[in-house]
Amino acid sequence: MVRPYTHQPVLCQTVAALLVHNPSGIYVDGTVGGGGHAAAILERLDPVGRLIGIDKDTEAVGAAQQRFSREGTQVTLLQGDFRDIQSLLNGIGVEAVDGVLFDLGVSSYQIDTPERGFSYLADGPLDMRMDRSFPVTAREVVNQSTPAVLERILIDYGEERLARPLVRAIVRERQREALTTTGQLVRLIRAVVGHRPLYKTCARVFQALRIAVNDELDGLRLGLAAVLPVLRPGGRFGVISYHSLEDRLVKHWFAQLSRGCTCPPDFPLCVCNQRPVVIVLTKHPIRPTADETRQNPRARSAKLRMVERLPTSTG
Ligand SMILES: C[S@@+](CC[C@H](N)C(=O)[O-])C[C@H]1O[C@@H](n2cnc3c(N)ncnc32)[C@H](O)[C@@H]1O
Asked: Which domain holds residue 269?
């Protein structure tokens, strides 16, 4: 049975309204998923405007292709990683665009499809790959990483305080038999957490493994840096993040691009020659309203930041 692609886009109209400053422009949704944000962007374009959707996940690209099948050449969908945005765009003859959106993390469709192995609430294979052509799954990460690497993953990507006992339990179990399912991993976590809240630990462990499998933080760093070379002066770049590790990277990158001279204040003349390349449009990140969070609990941790490329900037 083919599962319908369900995902409720977060901050949907807010993002589209901020991003689309020129209705005849070209916009890239770098994480198109089921096309919720893409549809809101498209609604704001005139017949000349164009939308390009990218996703690592072929199932997401397939769902978006179906959703936009009647839009003709106004919508182009590509399978790929947003870190390769420049070569993906060049491949379809596009040099520069007016806006880019990244809506990070996983979609509800991915989480709610047990065969994808993202969920601790349903039993499935330990997979967690967004791009299923990638050779390494969560199964390899859990069964083949050294204890030290596994512990770092749980601490750095999950901020998990029980990392050490969890890794000890994983290593003991995998010496007996390989961990191959999400159910096995949840049973093991249950045994370690004892009286502590099970699902909070599960959420942190699954998040950490997902970030490691998909190399999400390095991917984000590369993706952030890849956008500026394709963004026209006056173009906008928005990112919605869902946890502090992502948001920190986005915040620092935008701050770096918007900073001018970094010479010490007692220097009589500027020697660094750094000029701001963007202005930050969101002094504080935009958060979903209480109403949106009530209707869509997965929106609760979302933060939207957006910048605009300065008209005269180069780089
Ligand atoms: C939160 S969902 C996006 C949902 C989408 N905005 C919508 O309205 O349906 C995140 C999507 O980004 C994709 N993704 C995550 N990292 C990616 C990357 N580095 N390059 C391309 N796609 C990525 C995931 O496969 C997933 O489909």
From this structure: 12-109+217-309
Number of structural domains (the chain) is 2
Within a domain: 153: yes
Weakly modelled stretches of the chain, pLDDT under 50? none
Domain shared by 101 and 179, yes or no: no
Q: Is the CB of 238 under 6 A from ligand 1?
A: no
Measured at the alpha carbon of residue 207, what is the angle toward residues 201 and 211, in degrees to the nearest 5?
Answer: 150
Pick the residue whose CA is nearest to atom 22 on ligand 1: 55
Rounded to 5°, angle at Cα 67 from 223 and 52:
30
Cα-to-centroid distance, 266 and ligand 1 (Å): 46
Q: Can you give the pTM of this predicted structure?
A: 0.94
What is the per-residue pLDDT for 223? 98
pLDDT in tens, 233-261: 999 999 999 999 999 999 999 999 999 88
What is the rounded CA–CA span in Å between residue 76 and residue 291? 33
Are residues 303 and 234 part of one domain? yes
- Statement to judge: residues 101 and 153 lie in one domain: no
Asked whether 67 lines ligand 1 (CB < 6 A), one says: no
